[in-house]
């Protein structure tokens, strides 16, 4: 096997692993991609108006308005670097943007 082929083979393996990880991550997320996308839109808009007070206040009231479980979702967001509204938009959105675009 040439090293070029080997490189291609490894790249395909990594790609498959990432796809598998993404699938698993989506299965384990405590809210749907659709609701997550709506949350990011809402944060984008609300942070522009009122700014972040370094709590997940806007996120929390949005989740409650959708009847979603804040006890599950807030820790999940904070695990991904989003412990307040502006961090959720800055740190969590990046990781999910492409999946949201693909799935909604
Ligand atoms: Zn903040």
Quick overview:
Pfam families: DUF2695. The protein is an all-alpha fold and 104 residues long. The chain has helices at 3-28, 33-50, 57-65, 70-79, 85-103.
What do you see in this structure?
The protein is mainly alpha-helical. It is built from 5 helices and no strands. The protein has helices at residues 3-28, 33-50, 57-65, 70-79, 85-103. The longest helix is centred in the first third of the chain and has 26 residues, at 3-28. The protein is elongated, with a radius of gyration of 17 Å. The protein starts with a helix and ends with a helix. The model has no long low-confidence stretch (mean pLDDT 93). Residues 52, 54, 84-87 line the site of zinc ion.
Any key phrases for this structure?
DUF2695 domain-containing protein, mainly alpha, DUF2695, binds zinc ion, 104 residues
Q: What series of H and E elements makes up the topology?
A: HHHHH
The percent range for strand residues is under 5%
Alpha-beta content class: mainly alpha
Count every helix, treating DSSP H or I runs of 4 or more residues as helices: 5
Overall mean pLDDT:
93
Head-to-tail CA distance between termini: 41 Å
Protein name: DUF2695 domain-containing protein
Pfam families: DUF2695
Organism: Alteromonas genovensis
């Amino acid at each position: 096997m040439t090293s070029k082929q080997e490189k291609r083979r490894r790249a395909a393996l990594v790609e498959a692993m990432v796809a598998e990880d993404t699938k698993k991550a989506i299965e384990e997320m405590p809210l749907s991609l659709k609701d997550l996308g709506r949350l990011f839109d809402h944060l984008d808009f609300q942070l522009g108006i009122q700014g972040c007070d370094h709590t997940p206040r806007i996120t929390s009231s949005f989740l409650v308005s959708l009847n979603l479980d804040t006890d599950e979702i807030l820790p999940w967001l904070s695990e991904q670097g989003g412990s307040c509204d502006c961090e959720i938009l800055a740190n969590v959105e990046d990781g999910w943007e492409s999946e949201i675009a693909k799935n909604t």
